Amino acid sequence: MTTGPLTVVKCGGNPSVDSAGICADVAGLVAAGQSVLVVHGGSGEITRLAGKLGIPQRTLVSPDNVATRYTDPATLEVVVLALAGGVKPKLVAELSRLGVPSVGLTGLDGGMLRARRKSVVRSVVDGKTILIRDNLSGRLDEVRPRLAETLLQSGFVPVVSPPAADEHGHPVNVDADRAAAALAAALGADRLVLLTGAPGVLTDPGDDTSVLDTYEVPTTGAPGRFARGGMALKLIAAREALAGGVASVRIADGRVPGPVSRALAGSGTAVTMSPLPVPTADRSSVPGN
Amino acid sequence: MTTGPLTVVKCGGNPSVDSAGICADVAGLVAAGQSVLVVHGGSGEITRLAGKLGIPQRTLVSPDNVATRYTDPATLEVVVLALAGGVKPKLVAELSRLGVPSVGLTGLDGGMLRARRKSVVRSVVDGKTILIRDNLSGRLDEVRPRLAETLLQSGFVPVVSPPAADEHGHPVNVDADRAAAALAAALGADRLVLLTGAPGVLTDPGDDTSVLDTYEVPTTGAPGRFARGGMALKLIAAREALAGGVASVRIADGRVPGPVSRALAGSGTAVTMSPLPVPTADRSSVPGN
Amino acid sequence: MSTILACPECEDDVEISPSARLNEIIDCAGCSTELEILSLCPAVLACAPEVEEDWGE
Amino acid sequence: MSTILACPECEDDVEISPSARLNEIIDCAGCSTELEILSLCPAVLACAPEVEEDWGE
Ligand SMILES: [Zn+2]
Ligand SMILES: [Zn+2]
């Protein structure tokens, strides 16, 4: 029913990100005849619910110093509860109140997000490298876009989050930024907006005014010298979207009023990829359709 | 994509109901070219999660002795967590493992289920009738079937549960049996199967062999003398489906292997409605489309 | 000790027992109106709101 | 007291310190193979499984 450009918006689990403002912007885009797909995380809600349920939260730190949530089976249950039962119905209800027909989905629905579970991961604990085998997280290796396409064509706004399904059909946690990038690529989206708790890519993480207008990620390997902490993940997600054919990828502030419209108007950091003639590994790992 | 008959299956929150068997039956129907929509409750999971979260569960008993869950705001949050984040992803994952592309939905998605919140309800406490004003439950008054139709036409099995949205777009709990009946009527379903923790309508609730082959509900008022406890709700739901044009409505055992195929083969109780020439109030309260 | 109030509908005496509860419904003996106890101390009565009768909810 | 085991790859001595942890990775000084401590008491070593290197996960 809609024929305008498709924008994929990822809003974080950062509690400071303004979900009401995001929903209002989505409503504006939809009213203007555009298509939108929303991807969300929910780290704040996961932590809150895990605390209430008395499930200890641990962090895995890889030997190259990337921190991720240790998703043991009890934590995966909390992740799904918090995302599918907490964050998502609130976003859907808010969009609905704004007159936007939206549909909450996880990667399990319609077999949309498929991941390969990492059966063994390394984590650094007290300076020692330990192998962890019960971590239920994975790397996205396939997007089946038919469900999202069907809904977008009928004028619905899909609201998507982890988990994905592993090779045996069991839920696994995946990175929501990279899920947004993979969906944007698979759906042939025109734009990907990754909202975060910072004004964009900063040269000095302590100085919000050090935001870069543009940032060029290398086609392979580490995403570069201003990629610290969670920003490294976002830049890898951005690269995957660019490699998958998404023309415009921006990392922008989710804490301001009208965060999506501001980002689309040019605030935040536009991510580009240094050109390379050969196809990258990332491109082949996320099929376009 | 499917052109066969549409069956709506309601599976209860009763932990004894065999959800793996239900999913296998749904897969069989889909493989045979039929369409299926699943509606689920989750009272067991709601009670379990409320207990873990330390949220006391109370029951409202109406002056005519019907018991319902007291859904204060904290309980509504648990209801949504348990249904959308607990029961539903497990059903979707199980169907997916069986090769059935399914999509988990609540009544909020696509504005599918609309309810009028009962701002005041009566409850009997210690022999006194008390008015309760913070109960977030409502009576379904509109089904917007477009989302479910879109998914069914594309070959997906919708897996639906409460909550519904009230007149202000806020979530409210609704009875899942009646939601199944309203969806069956609105979608023009051929068959409604209400699975429960009993072999059907019993003349003696203590004797599983006292199951009736058929049960005729009056067109209005109390559903009759064998309608005790939760069975009264199911018979009212059955009546609403029949009044809405669903040709076949059965109440059958969800605890046995192959519960759906057994019910469709004639086990359990077929519910009929005593004929009455004038339209009933129930018919007008659940529009067909 | 019971409290005596006037029925807001017919002004007959209505007795509120010491065991009465907030939001309890009592019937006026004079006019049969259903009254709700809106407050216990001080005792306040009002006509009870109509509640939709709905089989099975 | 440290335990000494033979490297399953090159049979060189590998020292397991008293502070070693289950599933810890240690490098064999002789052949540089990564070894995993599969059990502490008794100490058991095996070649560590390959772990996919994946930036950003
Ligand atoms: Zn009176
Ligand atoms: Zn060695």
Automatic annotation (TrEMBL), chains A, B:
Secretion signal, residue range per the UniProt entry: none
Any one of the GO BP annotations: L-arginine biosynthetic process
GO CC annotations, alphabetized: cytoplasm
Keywords: Amino-acid biosynthesis, ATP-binding, Kinase, Nucleotide-binding, Transferase
InterPro entries: AceGlu_kinase-like_sf, AcgluKinase_fam, Asp/Glu/Uridylate_kinase, Glu/AcGlu_kinase
Gene3D superfamilies: Acetylglutamate kinase-like (3.40.1160.10)
Name the UniProt record assigns to this protein: N-acetylglutamate kinase
Classification of source organism: Bacteria, Bacillati, Actinomycetota, Actinomycetes, Micromonosporales
Automatic annotation (TrEMBL), chains C, D:
Entry superkingdom: Bacteria
InterPro entries named in the record: LysW
Name the record gives this protein: Alpha-aminoadipate carrier protein LysW
Native species: Micromonospora halophytica
